[in-house]
Amino acid sequence: MSTAEKKTPRPIPRVNTYMDTKPFWEAARNGKLVIQYCKDTNQPQFFPRPVSMANGKRNLEWREVSGRGHVYSYSNHFNAWPGHEDRTPYMVALVELEEGVRMLCNICNVKAEDVKIDMPVKVCWEKLSDDINYPCFEPA
């Protein structure tokens, strides 16, 4: 097999023990989207962190969220990074969930020209391995 024929495998997210992302990936494996909430202030936060953005305390919990939101911003990518060569072009978006946090993600199951700012979306899942379901969004 020549160098040109070798395919770079898609990177698989790793569970981060410092940030304790295990609850996120366990929920995702079961088709549920969860985010952290500060138990003292009831403020949601995403991406996972070891402390609350609201007060700096470690009093956090994971809660299932609706998985619904809207496109806040997006970009159509034509140059693939390693492991994504067969996915171009692909849509990357900042989706604002109903709960108020924003997630950087892919938009799937829609033509690039149909993606619009404020377009309603819902979570869908891309199975990357037996243990990893990756959250994406599609038109709602």
Keyword list:
three-stranded antiparallel sheet; 1 helix; 140 residues; OB fold (Dihydrolipoamide Acetyltransferase, E2P); globular
Task: Describe the 3D structure.
The chain has one helix spanning 22-29; strands spanning 34-38, 44-45, 60-64, 68-77, 90-97, 102-107, 120-127, 133-139. The radius of gyration is 16 Å and the shape is globular. Helices cover 6% and strands 36% of the residues. It has 140 residues and is mostly beta strands.
TL;DR?
The protein is mainly β and 140 residues long.
List the helices and strands and how they pair.
Blueprint: H1 22-29, E1 34-38, E2 44-45, E3 60-64, E4 68-77, E5 90-97, E6 102-107, E7 120-127, E8 133-139
Antiparallel strand pairs: 1-2, 1-3, 4-5, 4-7, 5-6, 7-8
Structural class: mainly beta
What value does the average pLDDT take? 90
The poorly predicted ranges are none
CATH architecture type of the largest domain: Beta Barrel
Largest sheet: 5 strands, antiparallel
Content of β-strand? 35-45%
Question: What is the strand arrangement across the widest sheet?
Answer: 6-5-4-7-8
| Topology as a string of helices (H) and strands (E) | HEEEEEEEE
Level of helix content?
A: under 10%
Distance between the termini: 43 Å
Would you report the number of β strands?
A: 8
CATH class of the largest domain: Mainly Beta
Characterize the overall form.
Answer: globular
Number of helical segments?
Answer: 1
Radius of gyration: 16 Å
